[in-house]
Amino acid sequence: MRVSVQDLQALKDRGERFAVLTAYDYPTARIIDELGIPVILVGDSLANVVLGYDSTVFVTMDEMLHHTKAVTRGAKQALVVGDMPFMSYQTNPADALTNAARFLREAGAQAVKIEGGEVMAETVRVLTDRGIPVMGHIGYTPQSSYKIGRRVQGRSLEDARKLVRDAQALDEAGAFAVVVELVPTELAKVITDRIKVPTIGIGAGPDCDAQVQVISDILGIYTDFVPRHAKRFVKLADAMREGVKGYVAEVMDGSFPAPEHGSSMEEEVLRELLKDL
Prior knowledge:
This protein is an alpha/beta fold. It has two domains: 5-234, Phosphoenolpyruvate-binding domains (TIM Barrel, Alpha-Beta Barrel); 238-276, no CATH class. Helices cover 44% and strands 13% of the residues. The protein contains twelve helices and eight strands. It has helices at 5-14, 26-34, 46-49, 61-74, 93-105, 121-129, 145-148, 157-173, 185-194, 215-219, 236-253, 267-276, and strands at 18-22, 39-42, 79-83, 111-113, 134-139, 177-181, 199-202, 210-213. The chain has an eight-stranded parallel barrel with strand order 1-2-3-4-5-6-7-8, surrounded by seven helices. Strand 1, helix 2 (26-34) and strand 2 form a beta-alpha-beta unit. The relative contact order is 0.11.
C-alpha cells in the first residue's frame, strides 16, 4: 500500500524520524522505493543535477512532468511529490490549481511542493481544499535565489519571526509537511515544535521530523562540489570512471567482448552462407 500524508503525520505524532530523497528517473526511483523510503521528491533540482541548467528557474513544467512520470512508474510504495517549477503557481491560485492537477493527473504524483510561506498560504488552501496535497517550503527557497542569495535564512530576530509565521501559515492552510531549508538548527527546532505537520529539514540541523537530500549529493555523483548540508555516503563518480576506463581498455585490447558475451551460428548454416557469398 502506498504511503499517505496521514502515514507521515502519524510518524511525527509518534516521534519517528523519516528520510526523504529526490529522484528524477525510473531506475533510481525503483531502488529508493525498494528500500522503503516513504517520500520521493521529484525536485526542481532536476534543473541543476540532471539537465545542467545554472538555476532551478529554467526548468519547465513539461520537463518536470516528464521526469515525474518516470519516477512514478518506478515507485510503487513511496509518496511521490512533484516540485512545481518557477512561475507555475506564483501568478494566481487558479493557475496553480491547473498546473498542480497536471502533476497528479498526467504524471501520477500524489502531491506537489511549492515554495514560499505566508504569501503562498492562500494558494496552499485552494489546492488542499480541492484534494491536492501540498508540501510547503520555507527558508532558503532556490527559485528566489536571485533575490535572497544562497545563504542561511533566519539569523536575525525579524527574519526568524517571519519564518515561524511562514511555517504556521502553511500549517494552518493545510500543507501536509513543510521543507525547512538552510536555517539555523535552533530555529528549525522552534518551527518543528510549533507546527502540527512534519518538518523536513535540509541544512537545518537534526531536530526536524525528517531530512531530505538530493540523491546525487549523497551518492557522490559530482566531485567538484558538495553542499555543506550534504554528506557523501559513497563515491559513485569514482566507480563510474573506473568502470568506463575498464570498458575502454578491454575494447582496445580485444578482451571484450569475450565468447560468453555473444552467440554463435551452427557450422552448417555458416558454411551454406559462405557458399552464397
